[in-house]
Model the fold of this input.
Amino acid sequence: EDGYALWLRYAPLGGDALARLQGFAPRVERASGTTGGPMLAVAEAELARGLTSLGAPAKTKGSIRLDCPRAGGDGDGSFHIRAVDARTLVIAGADHRACLYGAFALLRELSLGRDPRAIELDERPAMPLRMLDHWDNVDGSVERGYAGRSIFDWWRLPDHLDRRLIDYARANASIGIDAVAVNNVNAPAIFLEPRFIAKLRRIADAWRPYGIRVFLSARFSAPRDIGGLATADPLDPAVRRWWKAKADEIYAAIPDFGGFLVKANSEGQPGPQDYGRSHADGANMLAAALGSRGTVIWRAFVYSAEDASDRAKQAYADFVPLDGQFADNVIVQVKNGPIDFQPREPFHPIFGAMPKTRLMFEGQITKEYLGFSTHLAFLAPLWKEALDADTGRGGTVAGMVRRGGMAGVANVGSDRNWTGGHFDQANWYAFGRLAWNPSLASEAVAREWAAQTLGRDAGFLDAVTAMMLGSRQAVVDYMTPLGLAHQMGTNHHYGPAPWVCDLARPEWNPCYYSRADAHGIGFDRTASGSDALAQYAPSVADEWRDPKAMDEDYLLWFHHLPWDWRTRSGRSLWAELVHRYDRGVAAVDAMAATWDAQRSHVDAERFADVAEDLKVQQREARWWRDASIAWWQSLNGLPLPAGAAPPAHDIDHYRALAFPEAPGI
Ligand code: BDP
Done:
């Protein structure tokens, strides 16, 4: 087993589960009124493949009836599954998309060993767009990619379509993903040229039966870059005509093209502000070009060089005043937290603050700031922390995106196991499942993933699920405990670099975020500091205002405190910080021990791969702990708390480390 099959292995059932499936022995049939089509064919082929693989006998008795009258897949994919009599299970919904999702859901249930005739599901997606964003470049490299090269072979497209792109679409369909942006948000205009539209068309045709619409990251300055115009001003009539013609050209090739994803006036990307126009002016101009055919997804990830007083405040300051100005087919895409995909951040204050705007949640599946693909970190608890958060403005974060969706920065590459680390598959899986239903529990998602992907033994699942659930907190503890953020190495974001303080823009420096000196540490975001707290609803801000009463997981995010400040454990802030680093290191050691005890439950290849990665993680957790402690000590001059091990090296050793070979830049 090399991991290529993902969670769609359909390993043969055994024991009672096999006996029940054999007793049912279904064949797949269509209800009268349901006619065939490419999407239904995918559902039928998947059921046939899955049932056979799980161990259903060739001689059939019962039936699985597909009752999805409308051809095509325009509906939202809601489906239900239930037994109508002792030998017939029906998958039903409005159109073929319902049967597609229903087929995968049924196979998931069967894979988990459920009694086929007792399966009853009634499901509808929580939000319309469940999307993956690829940060893949035209040359086959992947920004922040840790799973090899891009799966998109732009060189050989459109003549050759890699088989892997079909397997990719199938995996996405199995978890309800319905949209994919194929190229990096830092986009060159070349993707909008006719040559590339032909390539995109080939992909769109291949993915249509799997219910996936393609999106393109569009460079805002394209009318100048490739259109021969002197400007890209969104209010210029020639610019508007250019985009309209471009959209027409794309729709002629791809009638169900999803639309444009845009990173504008952010980290050097061009945008409407270059012409004194607002984000709404820019987004609405593109929205008019697409018309009712598609959607503009406009990213709120902005922070300007001019005002670096608190980066955490800038997206809100730029976007909230524009609430109500965006066209209906614009969605503003907001990262889970106000800075940048850190191991832990409070939820983004824009959620709840733009009631007249369709919003989308952006999470990062690829682990740019969480140890790349060599550290095991299950991210469902990270996303859930934001999704479940009550905004104090009439609902949770998940509720605020129900008219928009969720987009995850993909962690998929051409590595044989897709995601670099085997457990990173769980993050892809979890993102899709949560976008379908954000109220699923992290534990349930971890368990169903592990059962389908690794093995079904109950003791094994208990151990592996617990390991997964604690893994993200372990990363927080050994990298950035107590609400610290952005302490990673420059550019590649690999390893610790809390000492860095000399980069061109203040908010690129780890020292900007820690604000550590001889006296204390932490970023004051209360009224005495940047007052970022005031961007949250009063009920939420109240939770975080008092450092004595608040959840200490966010302590140094909101407060600058002296090193001898008393935490709730009774320890000084310094001792608590060291305690948490140590807790993180110990947690990784425990994960390695847990995994080691599972040898008999996992195939040798995947067992060894994971064991090797955990060794790297053990080593790097210590590195993070030691380098961080050595640095803080060089500032505060404090002795280590009693019993804490001294760092393995002095601070100069850690500062001298360099990694030109680090991937993903
Ligand atoms: C940052 C990444 C950078 C991305 C940027 C973004 O370091 O590579 O381009 O996010 O989201 O975290 O646009």
The longest helix spans residues 604-636. The chain has three domains: 15-123, 129-453, 477-523+560-656. The two ends are 30 Å apart (CA to CA). The chain has 20 helices and 15 strands.
